């Protein structure tokens, strides 16, 4: 198990991806799994698409730097990102979330141009924050079986999905996907329709 900064490189065109992890070897396995998991939000990310198109055997993993102090790992990732300028990364790691990266923000803005959200969707989007995710109940209804799951928080729901091996991505990204269903931005996530409209008996 290696903690630090890694690079995944396409040996055909030399394009690369740079990331950080507490367990680089496990993260590499995760990247390969995600590339072929259609239900995963990262299925259509640049690296995942490239792995499917060029074949997993044409990608190699390199450990760029071992980082013992976890508090310094993000700074080291930013260093290597700026040094290599990896083509498969969708945003600069120095930003707390991809949407804050000017490059990504511009793309999102362009995609949303002309798209109208209802007042309810806008109000819900404004309410979503860390406190909301940790305290607001959420319900998932399975599209096929109609199984109903009720959780005390978005985080509880995300942790359940991981334990059930339905996904292996980071908790914060699962929460974001659930939130997008609740606000009406997407229809479902991992086979469930998510809502925060819950009866008192549930």
Written description of the protein model:
- With 202 residues, the protein is of the alpha+beta class.
- The chain has two domains: 4-110, 3-Layer(aba) Sandwich (GIY-YIG endonuclease), CATH 3.40.1440.10; 116-195, no CATH class.
- The protein has eight helices and six strands, in the order ββααβααααββααβ.
- It has helices at 24-34, 46-54, 73-84, 102-112, 119-127, 130-135, 154-163, 171-182, and strands at residues 4-10, 16-21, 59-66, 138-142, 148-151, 192-195.
- The strands form two sheets. A three-stranded antiparallel β-sheet has the order 2-1-3. A three-stranded antiparallel β-sheet has the order 5-4-6.
CA distance, first residue to last residue: 42 Å
Under CATH, the homologous superfamily of the largest domain reads: GIY-YIG endonuclease
Topology order in helix (H) and strand (E) letters: EEHHEHHHHEEHHE
Q: What is the approximate shape?
A: elongated
> From the coordinates shown, what is the CATH architecture of the largest domain?
3-Layer(aba) Sandwich
Q: Over all CA atoms, what is the radius of gyration?
A: 19 Å
Number of helices: 8
Q: What is the name of the CATH topology of the largest domain? A: GIY-YIG endonuclease
Q: Could you tell me the number of beta strands? A: 6
Structural class: alpha+beta
Q: β content, as a range?
A: 15-25%
| Mean pLDDT across residues | 82
Defining key terms:
three-stranded antiparallel sheet; GIY-YIG endonuclease; 202 residues; 2 domains; 17% strand
